Every structure is written in C-alpha cells, then in structure tokens.
DNA sequence: CTACAACAATTGTATATACAAATGTATATT
DNA sequence: AATATACATTTGTATATACAATTGTTGTAG
C-alpha cells in the first residue's frame, strides 16, 4: 500500500504526517472489509463489538457504562446501539435491582448463536487482512504501536 | 498504549486481530486529536483535507471526482462537503466550460489564508502525536504498513 | 438526427454519530 | 426530612455519512 499513490499526490509527504495517513488508510480499508463481512449478518461493527463484549461476560450481565468503556470505538450513544440488538432479540435488558439507575444487559441464546456464525467469517477476514505479514512483522508492528 | 488495558479485557487477544484493533485504537485517538485541533477553525477533518487538496492544485481548479479520489477517507458525498466550504467562502465553484457536466472547484484567497493558520496547529499536533517515536521507528513502521 | 448508454454531479432518504439537555435514581449535607 | 449533588441512562437535535435514485450533459450507434 503506497500512500502517495493512493491519495494520488506527486509530492512526497513528510515522515510523521505520512505515518499517520498511512495508518488511517489501512484502518479505513480494514473497516470497509469488516463492515462488508458483517453485512450479510445485518449487524454493524459496533453491534458486533457489543455482542462480543457481552459474551465475554460469561453470563454475567453488563451495564451500559461497562459496555461503553470496553468498546474499541467509544461512542456517545450506547443506548440506541443496544436498542438495535434488542430489536433483533440478540440481547436482553432489565433494570438492575440493586441500583435502579443502572440497567443490566445480557446476550441471549439467539445472540450467542448469531455471533458464532459471525466468528468464522471474522476470523477468515482477519487472516486475509494480515495475510501478507509474518508473525515477526506483526509482533514488531505491535511493539512500535505501543509507543504511541 | 496497551490494547488489553484500553478495551479492558482480561484475556489476551490473538496476534492478528490484536494488531488490527491496535491500529484502530491509535487512529481513533489521532482522529480525536485532529478534530479537536481543527475545531477552533470551524472545519471538519474532511473539509481541511479538501482545502489541502485544492491548494495542492496550485491555482488549477479541481472537479469533484478528482477531489473525491484524492481524499484520505473517500466519502460518498463530496458535493455537500464542498457546499460547506462554499458557505465559508473558502472555495469557489463553477461549471466547467469544456464539459458542462463537470464542475470546477478552486480555493479562494480567504481559503488559503485560513489554511495557513490551520497548518501551524496541525504541524504541532502531528509532532505531538508522534513525539514518542524516533525517525527510525517511524521508517520501520511505514515499511511494515506497506505490506498490508 | 434520434435513441441510448455513459458520465458527473446533485438530491433524497435512511441511518449513524456527536453533543447537550432531560429524566429518574441514589447519595450526601444540613 | 428536605435539599442539593452526583450518577446512569435516555431523549432531543443537529450534523455526518452511506447508498440509491435523479438530473443534466456528452458521446455514440444505427
């Protein structure tokens, strides 16, 4: 992936902004791919992310703020995101008995099953997206990314 | 930046998805920073991007499809994006005389001046965002990113 | 010359996101 | 106990984005 070629500029971009643009371009294409992979399942990336967080709870429900802080892309409105999952019957929502301000959200059996179908497609996508890189390269990449 | 800590999960994530998430997290925080830096100038990242593309034309106008293909994040609606810049008098739009289907967009003096103010702020932001990395690390990072 | 396809941009519309304000509940202060 | 403050979520609203359909223009085949 050549940055200058993709954004079609002749002049070469200085190292630091170039790096930021480079990462942005890759993340854009990764997001596009992931969105496309999830499309047949009729869930957005965010919705998928929430389902995985809920599964990670192993039966224990999570409240909205917990979900929110665990999401890769924080967003201001987790309520409406959960509404969508609720409409698909992938999650359940009930008010927390100990603290009625809070709400307890848990994944349903239907949600777990849907997620299992998505997992296979996602796994494949992740491997395809990183197919050109060796484990060593990826480890090195992670090390550099850690410095940000 | 530790991935697991940020998305608050105990279990360690496999290398390949972890790398993708890692990049996503960094790009998210970079975007946030850039958005914040541009906020006082009342332009979005996309609008700023278009202004820079137009300046790069050195007086020569660009049509919508040209702008669109040069943007870092392609978007489906460049017309409305240009509308916003038009309202701020940062750009001019006129129909192309040779091909009346096309439209010629060029940056105004006011646009150039506004952009110059933004440049300084952006340069600083870019340096801050990459301050923890050496040139060698950034070069290595770009090399690895090229493999995607 | 007319009909048709291709092109470039615009418009319509549904959905997503960001941000502020509002609602309802719990806790702390006097 | 009454009031105020903080908390967790929801709602309102403006803006952004994705995608499809439409408009106006140009090129081309018969």
From TrEMBL, chains A, B:
Record-annotated HTH marR-type domain positions: 16-148
One Pfam family hit: MarR
Domain of life: Bacteria
Biological-process GO terms, alphabetical: response to stress
Molecular function via GO: DNA-binding transcription factor activity
Protein name: MarR family transcriptional regulator
Organism in which the protein naturally occurs: Croceivirga radicis
Upper taxonomic lineage: Bacteria, Pseudomonadati, Bacteroidota, Flavobacteriia, Flavobacteriales
């Amino acid at each position: 992936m050549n940055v200058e070629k993709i954004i079609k500029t002749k002049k070469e971009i200085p190292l630091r902004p170039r790096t930021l643009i480079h990462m942005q371009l890759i993340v854009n294409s990764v997001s596009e791919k992931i969105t496309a992979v999830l499309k047949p399942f009729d869930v957005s990336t965010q919705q998928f992310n929430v389902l995985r967080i809920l599964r990670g709870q192993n039966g224990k429900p999570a409240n909205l703020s917990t979900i929110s802080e665990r999401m890769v892309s924080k967003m201001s409105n987790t309520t409406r995101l959960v509404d969508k999952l609720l409409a698909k019957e992938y999650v359940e929502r009930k008010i927390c008995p100990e603290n009625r301000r809070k709400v307890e959200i848990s994944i349903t059996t239907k949600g777990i099953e849907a997620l299992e179908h998505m997992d296979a497609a996602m796994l494949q996508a992740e491997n395809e997206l990183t197919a050109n890189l060796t484990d060593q390269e990826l480890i090195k990449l992670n090390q550099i990314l850690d410095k940000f």
